[in-house]
Specification:
By secondary structure, the chain is of the alpha/beta class. 38% of the residues lie in helices and 9% in strands. The N and C termini lie far apart (58 Å). The structure holds thiamine diphosphate (TPP) and magnesium ion. It catalyses: N(6)-[(R)-lipoyl]-L-lysyl-[protein] + pyruvate + H(+) = N(6)-[(R)-S(8)-acetyldihydrolipoyl]-L-lysyl-[protein] + CO2.
Amino acid sequence: MAKAPASPKRAPRKSPAKKPPAKSAARKSAAPAAPNRERPAEPDRYTASKDELLEYYRQMLLIRRFEEKAGQLYGLGLIGGFCHLYIGQEAVAVGLQSALDNDKDSVITGYRDHGHMLAYGLDPKVIMAELTGRAAGIAQGKGGSMHMFSVEKRFYGGHGIVGAQVPLGSGLAFAHKYRGDGGVCLAYFGDGAANQGQVYEAFNMAELWKLPIIFVIENNQYAMGTSVNRSSAEDQLYRRGESFRIPGLQINGMDVLEVRGAAEVALDWVRSGKGPILLELKTYRYRGHSMSDPAKYRSREEVQSVREKSDPIEAIKKELEAAGVSAEDMKATDKEIKAIVAEAADFAESSPEPHPDELYTDVLVEQY
Ligand SMILES: Cc1ncc(C[n+]2csc(CCOP(=O)(O)OP(=O)(O)O)c2C)c(N)n1
Ligand SMILES: [Mg+2]
């Protein structure tokens, strides 16, 4: 893999900013500022067995079909509040989480969280029940789409404050180190969140204390209606850790095997005590920011073109075909997944809402 070219000397931006130069989507790694600083290995595209490929396909399809169903239930008024869908970004959560040790590693993310929970092996029924505000939901129906949580599975949310999960994730990583439990925290955040000040305070402490954390920027190109090029002075987000001596890698987040390969390198780096690492996953969301987004800031053609050229599920179908899996078998898996999702929706719709007595429970840890 080619090394990223050294950062060009930039003229100061004039105001109003000129049209940004075209960006290469190729995988890159941050050029080291100091020549003798250790760098992570260049990731290889992961070589998956047929069973692993099938598992990635199943998981990505589960997320896609689950999210499509969530969109329908939202339209029917069965899901209230905000609902941010993950369609298009499936390869990121599936590729990264496939490499984690579910017995010790922890995960934290923002409000676009259903896909991460599914990739982490949480039951689609309790996630759908949470979306529809039912007592059987993972947060007893009181958290909804943005505030899902499972202490048991070390999935720490689900956060609505943009960027807040980054210092919280550093705290989780601190706990892993303090307890010596060998765990690593995966802290996901968006391209928009990457411009939050608290992110950089967290970077500083994480590197100073060599915390076991992987900072994952899911660069889906937009923060609500603002494209990354319009909002970011340095839009090569994998470089954002450089001034904290945190190495960064830029990865094609539409290819689950590239993502898994990067996960291996990142986990090796962090587990060997070298401190944090930053991954920028270049991806794309097909749907609006949330269900209430009219998406006027981009053209239908743009979305269509990404779907046609780089859809992560279509890509893995090609891998499966090459591994000898027939089109019929793939269709059968799709049918099976649709049944799982339909069952989750039926379960959610037929579950009771929380009892009014539950209004004041689970608000504070302490009793007053
Ligand atoms: C501190 C804070 N500022 C602003 C908002 C409003 N807001 C919600 S989502 C969002 C965009 C974040 O975009 P990005 O980080 O790229 O994540 P994505 O939605 O693309 O997954 C903004 C500005 C908020 N929730 N919290
Ligand atoms: Mg974004």
